[in-house]
Amino acid sequence: MSLSISVFGLGYVGSVSAACFASMGHQVIGVDVNPAKVETMESGRSPIIEASMSELVAEGHRAGRLHATIDSTAAVLESDGSFVCVGTPSLRNGKLDLSHIEKVAREIGAALKQKKSGHTIVLRSTVLPGTTESMVLPVIEQASGRRAGIDFTVAYNPEFMREGSAVADFLQPPYTILGAQDASHLALLRELYRQTPGKVFETSVGVAEMVKYLSNAFHAVKVTFANEVGTLCKHLGVDAQAVTEIFTSDTRLNVSPAYLSPGFAFGGSCLPKDVRALTYKAKELDLKLPMLESLLPSNAEHVERAVEAVMRTNKRKIAHLGLSFKAGTDDLRESPQVQLVKRLLGEGYEVKVWDQDVSLGRLAGSNRQYIEEVIPHIGSLLSADLEDVLNWGEVVIIGNKSVKKAELSTHLRKEQIVIDLVNLDKALRSDGTSSYEGICW
Ligand SMILES: NC(=O)c1ccc[n+]([C@@H]2O[C@H](COP(=O)([O-])OP(=O)(O)OC[C@H]3O[C@@H](n4cnc5c(N)ncnc54)[C@H](O)[C@@H]3O)[C@@H](O)[C@H]2O)c1
């Protein structure tokens, strides 16, 4: 089915979106405040330099499917939906400048006053979570005198294209994300992306907004990580390209979802020690590698977040389930759970610890030595009786995944507060057996 859409902002995202939607058979009107961009597109030429754009714009123009105007009211009245693709640059202090978004929202709202039929407004510009619902939506409601969800609908649909391969990325996206308050608000977008390859996620507006930031932040992390590692390799006389080629070939642990779920701090006998060794070596080489140097301080902050979560409860008796850095091991070396228990004891809390894999009698070697140095009296805190520990505690910390959700739920009481460090089971959040707090969700 051919749709009629308007695209606000004929920059990189808007021009490519407009030309690609037209190439998919839809009727498209581009809108920009810059008359030069409007004239360029209206005469069948691309306002931006980008592979395949000249051909796509010329083809859309020839077919009479691609137009451009500075008249925002006409564009809204002549279309079923409007895509907002205007810039969201940084202000001098780093804050996001939403002035262009706000202006467009006002213009669309004013135009909607004259429109009898419904309209869908889709934000494609990158905005922080909450912006669409708490700023764009009310501005349109106010300017139009109409109600969101009834007279018009609002959705968020982030764009993942890269300049240089924008058309190919638009037509073959990694996935399509459609965010709305209600699935019924997505009718126009579903139709528009019916033929688009890749998985389609229908989600809340906030999730859709955040996925875009997560993606860009992660890409920045990857570039910085690769550059810091490359710098270290260079100064150690190691071939950086060879290292990264082998490293990235592991798609099970390295380039994969592994280690990418929000949870508790990293620990164990390897990660902290090896990060410490690398950053120490970098210092010896007089290298500044802020990202690698930030890993241990950031990890320590995460342990502090757990301490603060306990402090907020105003309770004193803490049942800590799971002492080792992950379930299925009795290795306590550099376990952040051990650090947490130590901090809580230091703050004067009473703590009982249950861990089915940890028995002091069985600990040996450097593992035993570690725990004797860090918490010498751990023996008096440890219990093998889960029921006893749970009955005693006012706050229950889920330290690792060694406890089974079913077993836990059986013993939890309404007045207990659960602090989950490992996202044990999503069902725990809503089963109502006690009040629940996730450390970072
Ligand atoms: N460039 C990218 O690769 C890319 C990729 C994904 C997402 N994004 C995001 O998409 C948004 C747009 O980025 P861009 O690079 O296309 O921006 P851009 O600066 O190239 O284009 C923005 C356009 O909006 C126009 N504009 C400003 N106010 C307007 C108004 N009131 N009415 C109509 N047009 C108006 C400007 O004249 C300009 O042509 C940003 O939020 C950006 O973060 C960009």
Tell me about this structure.
This protein is of the alpha/beta class and 441 residues long. It folds into 2 domains: 201 residues, Rossmann fold (3-Layer(aba) Sandwich), CATH 3.40.50; 142 residues, 3-Layer(aba) Sandwich (Rossmann fold), CATH 3.40.50.720. 44% of the residues lie in helices and 14% in strands. It contains 17 helices and 14 strands. The strands form 2 sheets. Strands 3-2-1-4-5-6-7-8 form an 8-stranded mixed β-sheet, sandwiched between helices. Helix 1 crosses helix 3, helix 5 packs parallel to helix 6 and helix 9 crosses helix 10. The longest helix is centred in the middle third of the chain and has 32 residues. The chain is elongated. It starts with a strand and ends with a strand. The model has no long low-confidence stretch (mean pLDDT 95). It binds nicotinamide-adenine-dinucleotide. Nicotinamide-adenine-dinucleotide (NAD) binds next to helix 1 and helix 5.
